[in-house]
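The methods section describes the discrete structure representation at length, but only in general terms. What matters is that the chain and its backbone geometry are given together, residue for residue. For illustration, here is how one protein appears when written out as sequence plus structure tokens:
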Amino acid sequence: MKWPTELLLIRHAESLYNNLKKKKEADPDYQRFMKLYTKDRSNPENLSLARLLQKRHSLGCSDRDTPLTTKGELQARITGRRMRVSGVSYPDVIFVSPYLRTLQTLHFLKEEWPELGTAKEYHEERIRERDHGLSLLYNDWRIYHVLHPEQAELQLLLGEYDYRFLNGENIPDVRQRTHSWIATLTREFAGKRVMAITHHLTILATRANFERLGPEEFLHLDKNDKPVNCGVTRYVGITLDGRSKLKIEKYNEQYCRDEESLAT
């Protein structure tokens, strides 16, 4: 078989940005901003709100250096513990995005699942988060577009799938680099159990490459069933009609779904 026998894709646990997004969405000024944005993003009031919200909800660090929250640490610990207890086979090889939140997620998974420490570990740039370029300074693409209306016009022209943030990436860019990583799996890790600690769009890009999803299918999945924090997607290697491939067995499985009992 030219494929790994198993591929586990795990999204990082809750990060500071994930928490910032929740607080921002609960902000009455942001809710007002969204109403105006939906009706007419060129409304002068929206311009002043955008500037206010940019300062109020600033992350204060780069995307690469964004850490986990305390809740995220618990999510990773519980995920590791429950995967170990449920009998999930530990991998031969672990790929991890070099971003802080993915590295921390792996650290806390290991604390509850010590056997992960026996796996060969690679920090892999090709499974990093999508590069959002200039929009990172605004922590919200809508705020970014209000303050840079020409970018909003460009997104309308190109569409969400092909639009590339200034100095950043679009979805096909992410699909291309994950495709390169998949080729490495077949070339160097056939017959191995592989785990990857990565990001939501990277997981979707990997799945889209396996299933040959088109732009509309990709965007539908991203909107309606995106990977959750610490969600686990499992592929298994199979042989069918003399040809081997990876087949999805589970998507977005949550080992820490019941947040009330995270500490149990």
Observations:
- Residues 92 and 118 are 8 Å apart (CA to CA).
- Strands lie at 6-11, 93-96, 120-123, 193-198, 232-240, 243-253.
- The longest helix spans residues 171-188.
